[in-house]
Amino acid sequence: MEYILGAWCAVTCFISPVWLTMIYLDLSGLVYRYDFSMDEGIAGIIGAFSLMVWILLAFVPAVLFGKKMYLAGRKHFLTALGMAAALVMACLIMCRFDVVAFLTTPYLR
Questions:
Q1: Which of 45, 58, 66, 108 is the most exposed place for a label (fewest CB within 10 A)?
Q2: What is the DSSP track for 53-106?
Q3: Global pTM exceeds 0.85
Q4: Kindly report the CA angle at 15 between 9 and 20, in degrees rounded to 5?
Q5: Exposure of 36 by Cβ count < 10 A (0-12 exposed, 13-18 middle, 19+ buried)?
Q6: What angle do CA 63, 6, 14 make, to 5 degrees?
Q7: What DSSP designation does 96 have?
Q8: For residue 77, how many other CB atoms are within 10 A of its CB?
Q9: Would you say 38 and 22 are in contact if contact means Cβ atoms under 8 Å apart?
């Protein structure tokens, strides 16, 4: 079970910067930076729903995985934390450290 939870946390750590940026754009009303199909009211509702989904599908499993690794030992916990940070940094490097600009480039539309 730890392997499945670890793989799931790796995937969600990798996509979380983009996911959280899209949630921020929805909640702040700046949705027009990546999508012209909805207004600010609908974007706020979608942003709130997306935030709840992120919490349930990414944050809670990451906390559970971190707790399991902490109980396994400090070395395992620090390794898991370092890998999560490396995956977040890999996503940011792929987005050239500016996720908003990455989402607003014309070739993504």
A1: 108
A2: HHIIIIIHHHHHHHHHHHHH-HHHHHHHHHHHHHHHHHHHHHTTT-HHHHHH-G
A3: no
A4: 110
A5: exposed
A6: 85
A7: T
A8: 17
A9: no
